[in-house]
Automatic annotation (TrEMBL):
The gene is cysA. Transmembrane segments: none annotated. SMART domains: AAA (SM00382). It holds the Pfam family ABC_tran. InterPro entries: AAA+_ATPase, ABC_SmlMolc_Importer, ABC_transporter-like_ATP-bd, ABC_transporter-like_CS, Mo/tungstate-bd_C_term_dom, P-loop_NTPase, Sulph_transpt1, TOBE-like. PANTHER family: SPERMIDINE/PUTRESCINE IMPORT ATP-BINDING PROTEIN POTA (PTHR42781), SPERMIDINE_PUTRESCINE IMPORT ATP-BINDING PROTEIN POTA (PTHR42781:SF4). GO terms for molecular function: ATP binding. It comes from the Bacteria. Coiled coil: none annotated. Residues 3-237 form the ABC transporter domain. CDD domains: ABC_CysA_sulfate_importer. Keywords: ATP-binding, Cell membrane, Membrane, Nucleotide-binding, Sulfate transport, Translocase, Transport. This is Sulfate/thiosulfate import ATP-binding protein CysA.
Length: 363
């Protein structure tokens, strides 16, 4: 079932929490609502669910207007950050809860409820824990039970609000993979709220980036990371190295730092944004770029060695970061305080006269 969000405006007294939201959530896909705290993600999710109403706008499910419908009549399932399982009920009773309280004419018979609960527990791979109580489960197991309970009603849409927020990093990662494979098997339409970029990029088919109650960009994770439309999205999606400078004679320059630009990049001021993987480190400047640094810190981040760099003879607000392989690191053994040069391979130029950043390639 697809979800169409049309012209949604939401106020809390005079504060505008959502500002003219227009969005399509495709059928059968996993969509992430990603944004900093207070950007309106939960409010939008609650409006989709029917837990909150908007002053203006419409919500359509596969073309059907559900704006005025009560949450009960929308066929949506929810999972929240805090599992909210009933402590006095077993796992199986928790999963059956939504079915047990249906009006008599809609309620399946006891054998069918039992069968459905067993099927759901198998699906979340916790059938062996059916008779346990929530207190006897780990956080990750509780969250899987919460998901099984949400799906017991066979909703066509599943809404998840920071579903893994309360769990430690390793369990989060496992549950993400598990949710993704479950989703690929069952193809329900899901929308989940997160403020974690990595989670949104790893898990979803489509990411909706929000800020201050507005949608900033909607794209696939790969597109979003490779071609952010705005500085906000660029910054929010991960580490970025920035050279702010003056543009003239085919060069962007600040202090001792400069980078040659392709033809057609003319403006007064501009910023060159580079992701860590778009930059190489060398011991000499090249003909295309002169970006001198001193090595400030070296740390091992799993498969990569992260080098933090302090500009030498020019300035930037935050240290630059470049990742190098362990074999490169061992071959060169760079030390803290060493001088080195960054060589951009790909970059993104923001300047006044461009509506969108221009992607540059120095290969
Ligand atoms: P978080 O990641 O912190 O949960 P969020 O992006 O989900 O944030 P919302 O919870 O949707 O943000 O809140 C958006 C804005 O609306 C915030 O500024 C919040 O303070 C405000 N807000 C949310 N609910 C209410 C309410 N019931 N009454 C008044 N203001 C509210």
């Amino acid at each position: 079932m697809s979800i169409e969000i049309q012209g949604i405006n939401k106020f809390f007294d005079r504060f505008q929490a959502l500002n003219d939201i227009n969005l399509t959530i495709p059928d059968g896909q996993l969509t992430a609502l990603l944004g900093p705290s207070g950007s309106g993600k939960t409010t939008l999710l609650r409006i989709i669910a029917g837990l909150e109403s908007a002053e203006q706008g419409r919500i359509l499910f596969s073309g059907r207007d559900v704006t005025g419908l009560h949450v009960r009549d929308r066929s949506v399932g929810f999972v929240f950050q805090h599992y909210a399982l009933f402590r006095h009920m077993t796992v199986a009773q928790n999963v059956a809860f939504g079915l047990d309280v249906l009006p008599r004419r809609e309620r399946p018979g006891k054998p069918e409820i039992r069968q459905r609960v067993n099927g759901l527990l198998e699906m979340v791979q916790l059938d062996h824990l059916a008779n346990r109580y929530p207190a006897q489960l780990s956080g990750g197991q509780k969250q899987r039970i919460a998901l099984a309970r949400a799906m017991a009603m066979r909703p066509e849409i599943l809404l998840l609000d920071e579903p893994f927020g309360a769990l430690d990093a390793k369990v989060r990662k496992e549950l993400r993979r598990w949710l993704r494979s479950l989703h690929d098997e069952l193809h329900f339409t899901s929308v989940f709220v997160t403020h974690d970029q990595e989670e949104a990029l790893e898990l979803s088919d489509q990411v909706v980036v929000m800020s201050n109650g507005s949608v900033e960009q909607v794209d696939s994770p790969l597109e979003l990371y490779a071609r952010p439309d705005s500085r906000f999205v660029f910054d929010f999606l991960g580490q970025v190295n920035v050279l702010s400078g003056t543009i003239g004679n085919g060069i962007i320059r600040q202090g001792d730092a400069w980078v040659k630009l392709p033809r057609g990049c003319d403006d007064d001021d501009g910023q060159l944004y580079l992701r860590p993987h778009e930059v190489r480190l060398t011991q000499q400047p090249t003909r295309e770029a002169h970006l001198p640094f001193r090595i400030e810190a070296i740390s091992v981040i799993g498969a990569e060695v992260r080098i933090e760099l302090k500009p030498d003879g020019w300035e930037c607000d935050e240290l630059w970061e470049v990742g190098i392989s362990h074999s490169d690191f061992n071959a060169r053994k760079p030390q803290r305080g060493d001088r080195c040069y960054a060589v951009p391979e790909v970059g993104h130029l923001f300047c006044e006269h461009l509506d969108e950043p221009k992607t540059l390639n120095w290969h």
